[in-house]
Specification:
Layout (H helix, E strand, L loop, with lengths): L3 H4 L9 H19 L7 E7 L7 H13 L3 E8 L9 H11 L5 E6 L7 H13 L3 E6 L5
Parallel strand pairs: 1-2, 1-3, 3-4
């Protein structure tokens, strides 16, 4: 005879999706650091969305500082002027292509919304980068406003 406790359902714990994605991104970054110790895997692309005519140099400077604090360096700055569907962003496509072709080792961006505010789409991008041993650094981590 089964124990009554065996069949009693435990309440599910709700996990904040932003915190789960932060953990996923950091896990991939940690794995890449283990695979490529030192400075051999250090070339990053900074990616910023800026309004038309706006100057992105201040944010790009902050992203360079973040990269340097992580032992990496920005080799190329890419911008888009509008936060639209990822499939039509020329700057984002260029940044991803640099990683895909081995000319860059990852991205450094202001925040999750720079890629997308949709958790499922963002997770796809995090996994795509992580599976290619590419870093993804954020100035404001997921879940921070």
């Amino acid at each position: 005879m089964a124990n009554d406790l065996t069949f009693r359902r435990q309440p599910r714990i709700s996990v904040d999706p932003a915190l789960r994605l932060r953990h996923l991104r950091r896990s991939y970054n940690d794995h890449v650091k283990e695979l490529f110790p030192g400075s051999s895997h250090s070339r990053l692309v900074s990616y910023v969305i800026r309004p038309p005519g706006a100057d992105a140099s201040g944010m790009q400077s902050r992203l360079r500082e973040l990269a340097e604090a992580r032992g990496r360096h920005v080799i190329y700055d890419v911008t888009d002027t509008i936060a639209c569907d990822l499939r039509v962003r020329e700057g984002y496509a260029e940044a991803i292509d640099m990683i895909y072709r081995g000319r860059a080792d990852g991205l450094v961006i202001p925040d999750m919304a720079t890629i997308t505010s949709n958790f499922a789409e963002y997770e796809q991008q995090v996994r795509w980068l992580g599976e290619r041993n590419a870093f993804l650094y954020l100035l404001r981590p997921e879940g921070h406003r």
